[in-house]
Amino acid sequence: MSMRADTSSAENLMQSLRRGLRWPGSIRQRLILLFFSITVGAILVIYFYVVPQLESNLTSQKIDDLKRDAASYSDSFQRAIGQREVLGSELDRLTRAVGEQSGAGVTLLGIPRDELDQSGAGLAPWVISDSREARRKPEPSSETVLAAAEEGKIKTATESEGGKRLAQVAKPLLYRGEPAWVVVFSTPLDDVADNVSLIQRQVLIAGLIALLAALISGYYAASALARRVKRLERAAGEVAGGNFSRPIPVDSEDELGQLAGAFNEMQRRLARLDEARKEFIANASHELRTPIFSLAGFVELLQDEDLDEPTRAEFLATMREQVDRLQRLTTQLLDLSRLDAGSLDLALEPVELRELAEQVASEFAVAAARRGTQIELGGADSDGEVVAQCDPERVAQILRVLLDNALTHTGEGTSVTIAANAREGPTGKLRVAQLTVTDDGPGIDSAELPHVFERFESGNARGSGLGLAIARELAEHMRGRLEVASRPGRTAFTLSLPLMSEGGRRDGRPRAGREATTAARGQAPA
Amino acid sequence: LPDKVTRILLVDDEEPVQKLLTYPLVKEGYEVVQAMDGQEALAHFEQQPFDLVVLDIMLPKVDGLEVCRRLRAKSPVPIIMLTAKAEEIDKVLGLELGADDYITKPFSMREFRSRVRAALRRAEMVPQPDSNEKPLERGDLSIDFGKRRTELRGAPVELTYVEFEILSALARHPGRVFTRDMLLEQVWGDSSYRDQRTIDVHIRHLREKLEPDPKNPEYLLTVRGMGYRFRDE
């Protein structure tokens, strides 16, 4: 029980630790923390790596000096060994002179010779003479001295004596091949320690100043950054709230400046889209409202008035037209939303265009005859087939729009021609299949001509102005084009589609799609 | 002269709307001339006199607001505007346009008839110069009811027909509170189918023309929760 409590509390601790170790929330805090850690890290590296390195370098430099001294002064002692009867006072003088010249402490020690081979304990080298004053004379360590004597080599050591560190170099002196004396050169390492602690202090002070500077500059840099980011955030919030009118000032060329520029561009495009959307909704609701208003009015008259039969019939006919108009409009709006959403399904297949043109033209025969308009089929080379890669139902829809357009915008007795041909494409290489609907009506006003394919652009009040817009988009979805050329007396709409084949006999396959035929029956014009 | 046929110019670019609005007018015994766009409307107006113009705002070629402005420049003929949006009221009733009335689509045929009748009745009531009625002087403002003239510091102020009617209704009884319904009744003869906001819009325009500070009016005072009154001192 208590164990479990312990583990769970440990888990809690770990979790809270992990939470605590996670990056803080804001960019400002993160940047300041980053600046802080980098500076502290640099100080720690200097303090715990560079400074000790420096200390050991200085020490080994001292030892090297002592080695040089040992090499150059040991000769005078070597000579003294040769004379067996050297007076102690002379040796004292010698060590003192060498000590003065080298600036190091010089100690001459004797080695208990005969016992050297034996592993007896308690034997220690004895001091023969010392250059230093008696009271501040630290004993050279006997291990170093004995090791130097035993191996016959120079030995170095640093050791502490009474809180002071000392560098020592012990050089054995041989008498008849055997080490007899050892001369020890030593120097205090106080100044090294002093220098190192001074450097440590200065590193700490400089580090604190750097830390402060890093925190302050980090704070300001981070604040400036955070302010600019905040501005972007606010602007984005405004766009999200539907306000597209306020661009962000682009105040620099850096990444944030570029972001602001990109953001402004996005805002401009959104504003255009929003404008277009509002306009579309306004236009669409206007187009829907008018027929609904007149339908409501006629219903009221039919209910309230004592209408004679001809007036009643006329009203009902007008209402029928308005209902048709609403139906057409809703279908068109649905088509447009599918085109916009890219969810329009096209069934592309080889389609013989002449046959398709004939079928659609026959749907309009009655309406054309009523207006005294003739619809002719053909073109110069009217015998061969023109097969295009397209969706027959959609091409029929485009043709209906073009024929309806030609009939409603021209006077009585106009002649309308539909021709299917294979032609050089715009690049000259690829040949394209073309369907052209031409009329000899009054033509489209030159000011209006550039806008005929725009949505809700209608030359008269009867059409919604969506037919040609949809027709062009359908053509483009089938990798085709729909273009217009107009002057008084001749208006030609040309639908270009990818060509499959041309020529051949007209009774062969492939044929116009079955769907086109059924669609044609279902959607005869009023 | 009493046998004269009342002739109405009906301007709308929608065929079914033309057909719809023509029927009740013809049934009332008026002669209706149809125009499909602004240009045609102006051309008809050049050729013959009309007793009333019913004018849609959205028109091809010359829009309804422009047609209204041009008609008003040369004739006091009553004009009823047909609007699609309530937000257009302000523009329609505005100073420079001077339409007499407006109806927002969709409206019922009953409402349409009532508006047309009221506009024609108003036009028949030709203002009789009444020299007995003394002009009213109040501060810098002087109103001559007989001559239908308003002056501010000696300078004449242009008021539309409806604006003058509202002003004189209030000013003939200084201090008396008129509700919006009472004012509608006073000006148009009846208040049915009418939007009380119309009165507020006209009052705002009047204040802009007459008051030194339209935000703190001196002459045309608002009585909260009731309506308006003219300063009685």
List keywords for this structure.
heterodimer; A: about 525 residues; alpha+beta; 7-stranded mixed β-sheet; 5-stranded antiparallel β-sheet; 12 helices; 12 strands; rod-shaped; disordered C terminus; B: about 230 residues; alpha/beta; 5-stranded parallel β-sheet; 4-stranded antiparallel β-sheet; 8 helices; elongated
The whole-angstrom Rg of chain B is 18 Å
The SSE string of chain A, one letter per element, is HHHEEHEEEHHHEHHEEHEEHEEH
For the largest beta-sheet of chain A, the strand count, sense and barrel status come to: 7 strands, mixed
Structural class of chain A: alpha+beta
Which overall shape of chain A is indicated by the principal axes computed on the Cα atoms? Answer: rod-shaped
Helical segment count of chain B: 8
Q: What is the makeup of the main sheet of chain B?
A: 5 strands, parallel
Show the helix and strand layout:
The complex is a heterodimer of chains A (526) and B (233).
Chain A: H1 2-21, H2 27-82, H3 88-102, E1 105-110, E2 126-130, H4 142-151, E3 155-161, E4 164-175, E5 178-188, H5 190-240, H6 255-304, H7 309-341, E6 349-352, H8 353-363, H9 365-371, E7 374-378, E8 385-390, H10 392-408, E9 415-424, E10 431-439, H11 467-477, E11 481-487, E12 490-503, H12 514-522
Parallel strand pairs in A: 7-9
Antiparallel strand pairs in A: 1-2, 1-5, 3-4, 4-5, 6-8, 8-12, 9-10, 10-12, 11-12
Helix pairs in contact in A: 2-3, 2-5, 5-6, 6-7, 7-11, 8-10, 8-12, 10-11, 10-12
Chain B: E1 7-11, H1 15-27, E2 31-35, H2 38-47, E3 52-56, H3 64-74, E4 79-83, H4 89-93, E5 101-104, H5 109-124, E6 136-138, E7 141-144, E8 149-152, E9 155-156, H6 161-171, E10 178-179, H7 180-188, H8 197-210, E11 220-223, E12 227-230
Parallel strand pairs in B: 1-2, 1-3, 3-4, 4-5
Antiparallel strand pairs in B: 6-7, 7-8, 8-9, 10-12, 11-12
